[in-house]
Design brief:
single chain, mainly alpha, about 140 residues, 2 strands, two-stranded parallel sheet, globular
Length: about 140
Amino acid sequence: MRLWSLHPAQLDRAALVSGWREGLLAQAVLLGRTRGYTSHPQLERFRELGDPATGVITWLVGLADEADQRGYRFDRTRLAGEPDPTLRMPVTDGQLDLERAHLLAKCRVRAPEWAARLEGEPARPHPVFDVVCGPVAGWERAAAP
């Protein structure tokens, strides 16, 4: 499961689509609708919120908005509630840099043209996140670049 901290506009097609699918799984986990993935470390930051499900729904809306921009149609009826447009979560610059490097490595293999575009851009956060200085998140399991 990869719930990207990066702005959805920086995600290639595969990352955007799989992020939607994995976000829906995260929603099910946080609502107690599945027994799998309940201990997944990427859910920690949502569990820290007063309403974790609303947190992941708000995150999913960011992906759906980007999908709309690209002409894709993500089924918003699968969202189990309304997003919170005022929700803000912190993400460290270290985490963003790690995710950018992780995505770039994947794109060099599966979408070289996207990797070339991403090479020239700094990491930008998903609209729900505010960037703070700091290291890679403690819940992160990907290897540092």
